[in-house]
Amino acid sequence: MNTLALVVAASAIANIDQRIAVLVDSAVTRSWSHGGLTSLNSYFTVWNLDAAGAAASALTAAIRLEPMRLGRIASPDGVAFVTIEGPTDDPTQAVAREVAEHPFGTPDFTGRQWPLADVRLLAPILATKVVCVGKNYAAHVEEMGGNSGTFDDPVIFMKPNTAIIGPNVPIQLPADANPVHFEGELAVVIGRPCKDVPAARAADNILGYTIANDVSARDQQKKDGQWTRAKGHDTFCPVGPWIVTDLDPSDLAVRTEVNGEVKQDSRTSLMIHGVGEIVEWISHVMTLLPGDLLLTGTPAGVGPIEDGDTVSITIEGLGTLTNPVVRKGK
């Protein structure tokens, strides 16, 4: 790639990132208004996503960001996107550094920072949508009574963004839903607007990875014959504790514990459809926007949770997402 082309690509991405910052800030991080989200979607529809994607890929090939832990916090000074630096197993030694405006692209820092122990971790991103892959581990398909050989293409469904909660926020079980299951999963966080992405270019469009819990009301799932109600309740998509950039997702250990007892113990290498294939499949169906979450499916070992339980999902290289469980009406 010649120098002029690189400059043009860099300029294009700078302009895209600048407009994303303004639109995401106004439409998502501030008000969640219908008009703001409509403007955001209209903007990305007008943009030539193929050209932007090509420029993004060219720039990504030339410039690689250092791995970071990106988070979102509530501090005495308000809500902020941050990078989390230092040993996270000792919050007294870790620091949250405020990122100006948004976490996409190369972050600019405001100069403000807080000890991690003095802030509350929120869901690390505000997604316009959560797209999930079902039946993506053969052993899980079999434990649910299915045949893993029948899914040549990814099976996708969606959860509303209102289901998202952060670490340590209670999962609220509906009073009339039983059983409700945990599902520990690797989640992909989209980093730029993209459409029709080849699997080989998926990484160019990924901001990083985080942990998610695809909480599911099994009785409603069986009764309805489709999964929107069963998986769409408020609090049914815990996400966190942060986003890790530049992580190889191909063979990570995934472990879920309920009240300290291991329930799921698997690896992402056992997924039927890998991350690249998932991004390709979903982006052929719909435009993906910065911050969108793609849940990659759960391994075997799912089971019920009840009032008073604590669910902890640990993924190698990412950390642990923990949420208590309460039942409405109790």
TrEMBL record:
Residues 68-124 form the Rv2993c-like N-terminal domain. One of its GO terms (biological process) is carboxylic acid metabolic process. GO terms for molecular function: acetylpyruvate hydrolase activity; isomerase activity; metal ion binding. Gene3D superfamilies: FAH (2.30.30.370), Fumarylacetoacetase-like, C-terminal domain (3.90.850.10). It holds the Pfam family FAA_hydrolase. It comes from the Bacteria. Keywords: Isomerase, Metal-binding. Residues 129-326 form the Fumarylacetoacetase-like C-terminal domain. InterPro entries: Fumarylacetoacetase-like_C, Fumarylacetoacetase_C_sf, Rv2993c-like_N. The keyword Isomerase applies. This is 2-hydroxyhepta-2,4-diene-1,7-dioate isomerase. It comes from Mycolicibacterium pulveris (Mycobacterium pulveris).
